[in-house]
Amino acid sequence: MSLRIQTALGSGLAVLAAALFAAVLCCDRPARARAQGSEIVAQDYASPLEVLLSPDGKRLYVLCQQSEEVRVLDATSFAVIRKIAVGQVPRGFSLSASGDRLFVTNSWNDTLSVIDTGTLAVVATWPVGAEPSSVVEDRAGKRLFVANRISGNVAVLDAQTGAEEKQLRAGRGSSYLTPSPDGSRLYATHIYPNPQPHRSGLQDRSAPESEITVIDIAHAVVVDRMPLHAIAGVFHLAFSADGRLGAVAEYHPKNLVPLAHLEHGGAFADTLTLFGSDVGNPVEVPLDELELYATQPFGVAIAPDKSRIYVSCGGSEMVTVVDVPRLLRFIHTHRAPYTQDLSASANYVVTRIPVGQNPRGLTLSRDGRKLFVANRLDDTISVIDTRTNRVASTIALAGPKTLSVLRKGEQAFYTARYSFQGQIGCATCHIDSTFDGLTWDLEPDGFGRDIVDNKMIEGVKDTEPYKWNGGNPNLPTECGPRTEKYFWRSENYDDRTLTDLVSYVRGLAPRPNRWRRPGSELTPAQERGKALFERSQDKFGKPIPETNRCSYCHSGPKGTNQKISDVGTRKPTDNSGLLKAAPLTNIALTAPYLHDGSARTLEEIWTIFNPEDKHGRTNDLTKDELNDLIEYLRTR
Amino acid sequence: MKRIGMIAMFLAAGTLVLAAPPQMPRYRFENFTTANGLPDNHVYSVLVDGDRIWAGTENGLAVYENHAWKTYTTKDGLAHRAVLSLALDKRTGDVWAGTMGGLSRISGGRIDSYTQLNSGLSNDVVYGVSVEGENVWVATAAGACRLDLHTDQWALYNERNTPMIEIWVYGVSATPSKVYYAVWGSGILEYDQKTGRWDKYEDPDGETEMVLFKDQGLIHEITTSVSYVDNILWAATYFGDSRYDGRYWHNFLTKDSGLPSNFTNAIKGVDAQRAWFCTDKGLAYYDGVNWAVYRPSLKDGKPEMTVRDAQGNVTPVSVTTAPAHNYILGIDFQGSDIWVATAKGLSHGIRQKQ
Q1: How far is the first Cα of chain B from the last one, in angstroms, to the nearest whole number?
Q2: How far is B110 from chain A (nearest CA, A)?
Q3: pLDDT of amino acid B211
Q4: What does the alpha-carbon distance between residue A165 and residue A182 come to, in Å, rounded to a whole number?
């Protein structure tokens, strides 16, 4: 460790201690809000995530995730007309075809709020699938389509009663829905890559695969899946008014090469996939250029005259503006692929407009002259004049004037400004403060060595040491020197920023477990599984050594004894077989498993990777007993 | 004299009418083999999905659409090349394929596969699959199971929690009220969806090839297929077939019915009265009274159709086409047409006007 880092770490820890004390004080407040998973953040900030204009353009609806409300603004004066409380951690909203109802998906309590836009009141709250993230009503007003992130589906509901008709299989982490301009098709995207159909060996790692799920709205069936090769993390999608051009914002990870080579070409390409008759075969185009990365592309809007595509870039704090005619000319005169070409975007990106912190949802006025951008982490809406491509005004949503430690930490988590050339931020891999479903080659120890699965970070507090091998003794080390050295390849955080960041990460509370019944009562299968988890004898009556019991290594409320051991999962590409007992928090959500992601499912941990019973005594179990054990693990 | 003549003519005509065989459906069979696009001639299963036809073959899952075949293989994510069974989720349009190496879900062209190693599936050899509501019911070589699509939870059914003695489960038919499993060597297992209770139907003669008690129960323990339609249970075994209305059993054997063979691979009820029987000696149709058999002749391979009336009179019907082979493994309906899986190709029976 260099002297510079040691010094920074030493002073950082001192500041950290004070800040954590302040954070603990915050914990004592009767806070009910959760902002991207933080229970210790009081409900002070609005955190606007999405914006919508009413059909007549007179109202601006703002979905405020942290204050858990929809704010209704006058679209001219921007005066607040009404604040409408909705459910926990709302994530998506849309207007009905007639504009008389506003639907809001509440991602943490699995409900849909129905707002009457005449009275501006919630008139119904319907239960939906796990982690609803987006909603669209068909034009006939008969059906609602809801993208459920944890369920990985698009549920079809009766638009009048909310009764679920069926669930359509979508991509993993199903999140965003966009209808085609003619209302005949619905396009669904997803934030985690789909499971690999074949379990490839570590010598044969393959690029992630994602899709755009195409649904026939009239028949409510999946009619197509547009493959998105090498894409992991797909967000909003938009169509031109004539329906001839579609564009979707996405991450193109380069996880098959060591991340330590950030300065040699980047860890991600931030791209759009274009499709439709204007394009021909779908084509992926980069938004990045040297020193100007379009990090964490999220929202997409296409001008009514199809002259421009606007993309909000959450990590770069800007809106990227693409000239559509130039873009089409480029793709028709240059042979793909050009995803890795950092000079390509100069052919069609006309400007990058700085906006607020963590810009997310955006919407255009009907005439296309104004672009509204929700800046999630500084509680503002940027209003861009699309003729000048400048921010004409900034709407401040009422909230605290000062930034709390946790708020600043969340800003540090999402921004890309600390990494080399502003390429990535923590949230690039920890999407919405979770994970990305990918395995990475992080260390500068040669290609293909020590492959590691990216883990969920909610509930990470008090589970040190960190890293799969337990190499980082605490979060300041994990988030500070380790991240700076191996990920950012750039300057260090200053002491306060590191403190803020660590405070934010420590404050990330786990989202509700969807497999646990209310009241924590276990199902019979879960009870049987719990008994197996805690057993001290195998089925032949032989005692199981304490260190080989599930409940020994995965003890405590978070399912880890925080100790290092060898559970027989070392691969030839691993430098060591010694690993920290992984926490079990929301383990059902975080496939793949094991340190290197070699187990695609929980079952494979034991059916394939535990031949000698080193990872717990399990080979005496029948198939139904193993199923019971897994049912219990899902409740953790 | 004239009157007597007329009476004689009338009687003669009446005799002719009485002698005419019953009107049974006639088909013109168009057969698909590797010669015209099928990936393999061994067709284990067939499924009609609107205008699309799915064929489970020994070398992949083939789908026929717009007069062309497309084949899904293990490279596309199919659990195994040999597709033994097929089921359609009518709500979503997803197709479920039971294979020799797991269970695959085909949804909008994407295939997700469940195996005994990567999921809660009890065994990789999936003989039967049936979808009802949120549940996929599966028959495997090591017990039955159910996948709850809402929760992704698996429930396994075997000798430890059902009256099943053998765990070699061959067929399944799931409806909102009842789920039936054909268990090879263990008769028929019934699951009541309301009560969650299991019941069992066995051969009252025990596991013998003799029929001591005709129509007093299931014809044999070695069941292969089951179909529950209009509250009627149709059951196939390797030693004859059965129909059960909840109170009475009626059994079918070659010696006292139009069944061409007691060795029945599959059975599919049309309604409470009518059913199709897929045997090793041809395809049979029963309309509640009469029987028809469709096959290449066992003697010379020429197309053959025979009709058997209630009195047991068997009449040949002149036909020019027949199913691709007399070893029949499966059937499904497309309006008035039928699609038939055979050991040497897939056959499309196009209903002819009579």
Answers
A1: 37
A2: 7
A3: 72
A4: 23
* CA dihedral sign of residues A343, A344, A346, A352: negative
Span B91-103, average pLDDT: 97
Q: Are A393 and A488 in contact (CB under 8 A)?
A: no
Q: Check residue B106 and give its pLDDT.
A: 97
Positions of chain A with pLDDT lower than 70, given as ranges: 1-43, 199-204, 260-261, 265
Residue B33 lies in a domain: yes
Within a domain: B301: yes
- pLDDT of A442 reads 83
Query: Do residues B282 and B293 touch, judged by C-beta distance below 8 A?
Result: yes
Q: How many domains does chain B have?
A: 1
**Nearest Cα residue in chain A from B134:** A166
pLDDT at B100 over 90: yes
Has residue B81 got a pLDDT over 70? yes
Residue B25 reports pLDDT greater than 50: yes
> Is it true that the peptide bond before A465 is cis, omega within 30 degrees of 0?
yes
- Confidence band of B5 (pLDDT split at 50, 70, 90): low
Quote the pLDDT of residue A31: 34
Q: Cβ separation of B112 and A195 shorter than 8 Å? A: yes
Determine the pLDDT at residue B12. Answer: 47
Q: How far apart are CA A243 and CA A246, in angstroms?
A: 7
Instruction: Give me the helices (H) in A415-535, please.
Output: 426-429, 475-477, 495-506, 524-534
Residues of the domain holding B333: 29-72+290-354
User: Is residue A517 within 8 angstroms of chain B, CB to CB?
Assistant: no
The answer to whether A3-38+405-506 and A518-633 have equal CATH topology is yes
- Written as six digits, the tokens of A299 are 């929202």
Nearest Cα residue in chain B from A516: B151
Cβ <8 Å between B91 and A165: yes
Distance CA A148, CA A167 (A): 10
B231: left (phi over 0), alpha (psi -120 to 50) or beta: left
The answer to whether residue A443 neighbours chain B at the CB level (below 8 Å) is no
Contact at CB, B156 and A627, closer than 8 angstroms:
yes
Asked if residue A437 lies in contact with residue A193, where contact means CB atoms within 8 angstroms, the answer is yes
CA distance B99 to chain A (A): 15
> Tell me, what's the pLDDT at A352?
98
According to the model, what pLDDT value does residue A15 have? 45
Closest CA–CA distance from residue A363 to any residue of chain B (Å): 31
Contacts of A166 in chain B (CB under 8 A): 91-92
Mean pLDDT rounded to a whole number for chain B: 93
Token pair recorded at residue A425 = 């931020």
The verdict on pTM exceeding 0.80 is yes
What's the pLDDT at A265? 67
CATH of domain A3-38+405-506: 1.10.760
Q: Tell me the helices (H) and strands (E) count for chain A, helix number first.
A: 10, 32
Instruction: Tell me, yes or no, whether B200 lies in a domain.
Output: no
- B109 neighbourhood in chain A, CB within 8 Å: 224-225
Instruction: Flag if B120 and A630 touch (Cβ within 8 Å).
Output: yes
* Alpha-carbon span A584 to A459, nearest angstrom: 10
Query: What gap in Å lies between CA A144 and CA B232, rounded to an integer?
Result: 37
Q: Does residue B38 fall inside a structural domain?
A: yes
Domain ranges in chain A are 3-38+405-506, 518-633
CATH number listed for the domain at residues A518-633: 1.10.760.10
Chain A, chain B: beta-carbon pairs less than 8 Å apart: 71
Strands of the sheet containing B249-252, edge to edge, are: B223-229, B232-237, B240-244, B249-252
The more confident residue out of A558 and B7 is A558
Q: Give residue A490's pLDDT.
A: 78
Q: What is the ipTM of this complex?
A: 0.89
CB contact at 8 A, B170 and B126: no
The answer to whether A167 faces chain B, any CB pair under 8 Å, is yes
3-class SS of residue A425: coil
Q: Which of B288, B211, B216, B212 is nearest to B254 (CA)?
A: B211
